[in-house]
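$ fold --in a.seq
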Amino acid sequence: MPKEPVIIEETTDEEVIGDASAVADDAKSIASCPVGKVITRCESSTGKVGAGTDGATVPVTGNDCIAHNGWNSGIAVVAKAVCSENEQISDPCNGAALLKYKHLRAKGANPSLECPAGYEAILCNGHSYWWDLITGKGVNDVGVIPNDQACAIANCQDQKYCDISLVCKLMDDLDAYAASICPDCDGWNCEEGYDCQMVEGVHSCVEKQTGCDINRCGDADCFAVGASDYTCDCQDGFEFDKLAGTCLPVHSHYRTVYGDKAIGDDAHSYASCNAGQKVMRCHTFGAPSAADGVTISEADGVVRCEARASNSRKFPIMAVAYCGDNAVATDPCSQDKLDHIAYRSNTGLSPSVSCPDGFVMESCIFHSPWSQGLSAANKARINSIGAVGINDDGSCAMADCLNSPAGHQWCKLTAVCKKLVGVEYLKAVCPTCDNVRCPEGQECQMVEDLPQCLIRIPGGCEVDKCGEGECVEDGADYKCLCKSGTSLMRLLVRMRTSVLRNRVEWRVY
């Protein structure tokens, strides 16, 4: 039976001695600590470690000191231990309570151990079932590696291994512990859902903000709000739309329509305008990472913005349409009915779109079911809401949009075109009368260098009054070239209508 623990004066430590082992290879003597105490000293007290006995070890539980007998030792081994209370000490770095002692163990061809930061080594034991492998390697005759040496044994073997155990004690100076472990937030502990912040050099745990973990602000800066919300500091011309969750172009006279959220490869979100309205802008967030882009479609007189999700499933997408009334006007050049807003689209590997004459491109948007294969240069041209930059010449284009495309793959660009008004439209479409078609009863005339349709005044020869002669028109007046007999006589006849006398005067020159 193990001997009764011996109380060490002026401490709560106890000395424990195990029963002697059998005089046999690998026989053990174990000294166990009472409940609540752990090993702080362990040795094979009968000696001959590395010269017949195999050494001593402490398991990671820290409860036992084990002395190992060896081959042909000729003696019994006896484990002798000191047990100390393993107090729980408040962590100066705001973590869970710290144990005063920690127990580590390693084995192998070259085992080595060090105490974690904030702890210091107080006991290192060495052992090998092949005692000759620890001979002359710093393990003393009771199985202890002195604290002024590294806790390590070199040049053992993978199959014939050595093992070591290390007892570490928490630093007595807790201020020094804090200075070593948590001088800043890197080592400071906060509870779940909180992050550390340094406020005037003092650690503070604040509620963790996750709103910007996925940045939906595109080119704008994201700012966390509360625990999980966020807002975007949008650039000039854009504003944060909370429902869409991103920066959208500023407007004041359109109606904003939001589609349902959609996620999954090719999932659709639609934002439809009322009948008689046009989609003035069509956007979504997450192009081209979470969204394949946006396009505009029209069916049964209803125009809608359509957003399509990509296969990334990064987060749900939502179509957002700006809807405005479709003003219809008469084209001053052709007299045809003309929509105020027109759409143009082109599909291919190098799509290009331009607006018709008399229109200016307001927006250009992108869509491709194969957006994840976009070339880096083209991906950079698409902003986070699916818009593509308009070129200086007013067109919108992409060259070789996809990397290594298959034959059936494509990209699509859609332009929203807005009609010019007044003289700007005339200058762009019909700067001269050559391209003007006037209504019945009117004719085109240049007025201040611009074509205008004016009431038509009948010409003087529209009713032939010269008989056998030739009528030469002079505006509303006319001249007759008359003939006499078989020879022509040039006569200038001028006809004047007298409103008062209602008669015709002939003058012959």
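$ fold --in b.seq
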Amino acid sequence: MRSLCLLSVLCLTGVSLADKNVLVLLENLTIKETHSIYFKNMVDAGYELTYKVADDATLNIKKYGEFLYDHLVIFSPTVEEFGGNLGVETLTDFIDNGGNLLIAGNSNLGEALREIASEVGFEADEEGTAVIDHLNYDSKDDGKHTLVIADPKNLIKSDKITGGVTAPLLYRGVGLLVDQENPLVLEILTGSSTSYSHNPDLPIKEFPHAVGKQTVLIAGLQARNNARVVFAGSLEFFSDEFFTAKVSPVGGESVDSGNRELAMAVSDWCFKQSGVLRVESISHHREGEENTPNFYTIKEQAVYTIVVKELVNGEWVAFDGTDMQMEFVRIDPFVRVTMENKGGKGEMVANFKVPDTYGVYQFKVNYHRVGLTRLYTTNQISVIPLRHDQYERFISSAYPYYASAFSMMAGVCVFSLVFLHYKEEEVKKKTE
């Protein structure tokens, strides 16, 4: 009875415990203590955490062809090779199957994490390098200006990812570069225009790996299958020290850091607890009717309705977007219309006129916005020409032809009457 009640609660909330099964790979067990606040917040949010050392010989995330975990957290920056059967190929396969990955590195990034980064469109700077900013650093810095204060204005413009953090952030770690030609990569947090990435103990003889806002501190990826990856160049970003620290810029006032809020917001986004959309139902019909037809006739008025829900705080609520479009496609879109959000239930409605070209069409919705999962649906339908008894009679543009036809008929009638009833007078012969 107790298990039945628990199942009912899970069905009502729309959240499954299986969706929060997380494997945490640590450099060593000390990290579990130095990052205890982060892990406690994860547990309080309902995640089930399993801790293992990254080079554990018994490490296994797949059994009988099924992955044992929904999400992976890798807090082992310097690992050169994972233990067990875990490797870069296994992790990319995990992402390809919809798994989510959160990685934190540092200035001594190991080869394993570098390979993973390159697979998902990121590139970390060389070993021993760090992000340096001579103008935006904390007063607790050791003189190398590597304890950087990141401005929240440099966060990606998406509250679904950042949680609307407005407090300054502390960062100490390696700089990243992202593939600008990859449309799936996101620059979640970048450095200021005065930051750069270099080894703080060596003189600068060559142009730095990353300069200015090209220096990415936290990068993200949302794959086409909606799997998410977050790569932070700083493990200390998630530490208790940075969570509870005061940000003290040189010559400025001390304020609480926003690391904790951003870390939890990014984690929830990465593990698909925010910014997730789903389609609840799709329907289409002729205007004035309710049943879905087997086909449409050209020039008919059609109504397309899609109900979209968004996951907010563990519950599915009506999506409030107003920019979702529907396309009526036959190879190319013949109709593209922005749907009206009816509100309350997440109903998106499009009213349109079926094109006057018959063929096989698709109702297509392809909605892709930063911070939200991609929504892609298609429904196929046939469009037929008019039947012989459906064509319009006495078309106004044909009036000249009608007039010419009737005038010809009238002319023939007049000619016939004249021809039939006209009689020529007989000419008398000379003999008469």
